[in-house]
Amino acid sequence: MLKKFLFLSPLIFLIIEGSVQAKEFSLAPVYDTYVSNDTYEGPDRYESEVAIGMHIRDVVSRRNVGFLAYDLKQLSALKCTFSDISISNLGHDIGGVVNVYGVLESQEHLVSEGMTWNTAPGLMNDPTPAIDQPVQLDLDDVTDILLTFTSPVRVRESTEISQALADFLNSDTNGYVAFMFAPAVGGNTILITTDQEGGGSLLEGEYTEPTGNASKPSPSPDDTEVARDVVLSWAPGKYADKHNVYLGTNFDDVTNADTSSPLLVSPAQDINSIDAGRLEYDQTYYWRVDEVNSAPDNTVFKGAVWNFTIESFTYPIPEGKITVMASSQSEDQGPENTINRSGIDANNMHSKETDTMWLSAEGESGLPWIQYEFDKAYKLHEMLVWNYNGETVLSWNGLKQVSIEYSVDGEIWVQLDNVSEFTKAPGTKNYASDITVSFGDFSVKYVRLTAESNWSNGLLDQYGLSEVEFRSIPVFAKYPNPESGQTDVAIDMTLGWKAGRGAVQHNVLISTDQQAVEYGSASMATVNQANYSPSLDLSNTYFWRVDEVNNANATAVWEGDIWNFTTADYIFVDDFESYNDIEAGQEGSNVVYLTWVDGYDNPTVNGSTMGYVSGSSLEIDTIHNGTFSVPLQYDNTTANISEVTANTSNLPCGSDWTKGSPEALILWLYGSSDNSTTEQIYVEIDGVKKIFSGNISQEGWQSFRVDLEDLGINLSNVKEVTIGFEKIGSTGGSGMVFIDDIALYRIAPASQTLATVDFVTTAPTPGTDDISNFVGPTKDSENISGGDDNRLVSMSRPAQGQTFLTGDNAAGYSMTGLWIQHVLYPQGETTIYMTPPGSQLGIRVTDPSASGSDEFVINSAIYIITGEESNIFPSTYTTSQGTGEWIHVTFSVPVVLSANTEYGFDLLGILTSGYPADLFFEIAGIGDSAPGGNPYTDGTAYVSGSSGRANNVLNTISGDRVFVVELDAM
Asked: Are 651 and 597 in contact (CB under 8 A)?
């Protein structure tokens, strides 16, 4: 029987040619800024670090226009067609009308780092307009308006779909598109940019890959550092029988080539790859694959032109890997100038400014010398030299006869033979290196140049150089995958790297001990390919290096750099992101209830239903992370159980739960006030049941932890996972919870249950072990110092904190709750506050001594406001004196604290369902400068983070909060 009524959203799939499916995409900008022409910040200002948002304004003293750019190269290379395009924006607290224009390709180069009002495309900027004049556009640089939208306020919203936007993308030829966001006349708005968490204007829509064309080229378009003996490959067109491959060094030639062209390097070949032979170093190549259908039509689908660049023969040793010293130096003309590229422009031309060069001191006894030390031995090919380039007679200080020595260890030195006389520098700007010293590809760590003469023929006794560049053969492993420093790496990651030239084997050392890798004592594996699959654990930082081996060289092993990565904290059992609503049995179908089998067909035995029974089966509004969660409905009024069961072979985690060494399973669930409280949710793994201790009638995300060790099962072969509700009592109950993000953790947090936040009109009475401060302000000016940013609990403000000192109970304390007070100012003084039911309050316990480190936050939890504070209107701001009410939070999980130790707590407003549902109130506290001073001596107020984003830095402020920390001696 058809279990559920299914539908296909037109925004998910677009059917073309009968079987081609459009795919969704969402891209963050690669470039994001605004330019200004006002007295506040313009017109020559470049907004490189946008801290507030992309301002789009045309009001007095605020003239701003925004720019965004997106990289579509990968999709463009596939010759994709774009459709249903919109832009998703996150607004600030100013809404307004925005017009979006496309920047013409001829002007795209102007949209780059350093752009100002005077250089930006689309603006009247030549001649420079007067400051603070209304925005005037230059429509010769941009398209007509592609889209007009009203900026959202504190929420993310997508604009209407724009066919003009799709047409603009489809007309693009280089895979890079730029947009100008301009205000309507007199308009005023702010969009949150990529510099802020959760920000960014996302380009969204669908793309369709043509079925007849070749796609997915390897190397990818614009790849550099490609090996000379590269094998070109691609995904063939759906109906391709043969492939015509064109290859050349000129884009136009490859674009226009036909079957009579010599650039057709492989006509009518059968396989979808080709060995291109040994290509030239440093050369950019263009290639095209035309797909040829089989008879009788033999249709030819002309392919896109792709490109790649072959690696260089040699590479400069970076400045940061070179140390330099000299026998002497003149003032401001130290030897470091020869490697720091001072005086060198983007075209490798040197200036004639002497303070960018090295010059020995006057009257030096003995022959002057300059010595370079690399961080390790390199296979040194050559040294490029720019001689001393001082103007006119000063160029005579340049070296003429030079002896050069090199060494591997700094003790045994070898004289370099056949060193030619150094050419005299011209003493003019734009001086190109004209001296090349060959080192014969020896293994070298030290190089010393000794000056035997200069170009003055004895008239000048100083010697100098402008710049040197050492170029080596790339024999070391490089370009690690994952990149060094990468986090959230999957434990089944296969490590990869670009092999050093000539390497025949690779020694891979990896460990969580950095010194073991550095000293070579870590476990080592020898492999023949440039990849290795280690056994990794979750939540670990690994250090690794690759030593390249070529026994044919004088130096057989080239020791690599040390890289690092950090593995993910968890493995998903199921995050519910892969499911869809394509009817079971159809191509691409993946419905959730076939993986998690429920009792829909037999409700008197099993009262569960996994997913909604009409419309989409998945939940898109109430989610923990990602795009979907799944509703699990239970009804035990007739059935004894309501449960769903999944076979681990059908889940992302698989059956081996020892991989990554996890210690616990975490499941996130969201309850409802309509849920029966007689039943409780459980997780059963291979027949072993664990029951959740939280409250499924509360609305808010809670986590359920199951310790794997307590199950007593074979974790290397887990077969089934069940989520269910067992009938309690004679009548049973019913309800629904949302399930999301079931995962295995090695270092797992405790179960996070939700607790109500109560409002109390009378002050609490501290217990024996409690710590408190009851001294508060009588007016606004006496509150904690520094204004609203230091006392306002809101998602848009820093976390509001307070330190305190525990007592001397040797066994320590259990922190079970917290009281804080809302301000109550005298009549006539105001505060803005809003604490609507359903909003969320974040509370952290901190270690002040660990400020700035990952250990700063000891414990964090989110609590839901369920009580009501007086005079609160959830839908709008309210201006009043404040209530003076106490806010009481009972911790869902107590926090263990040591004796005689300083700790802190802080509070954050959590944005939940969009502005203005933000929790927003002013906390009571006393400033040190208040009349009578501040009597509390065992703590101080602080803030942490900014713009609603918590971080790990404690910034002390003057004063103390009004609070009670509830403690129980252990």
From this structure: no
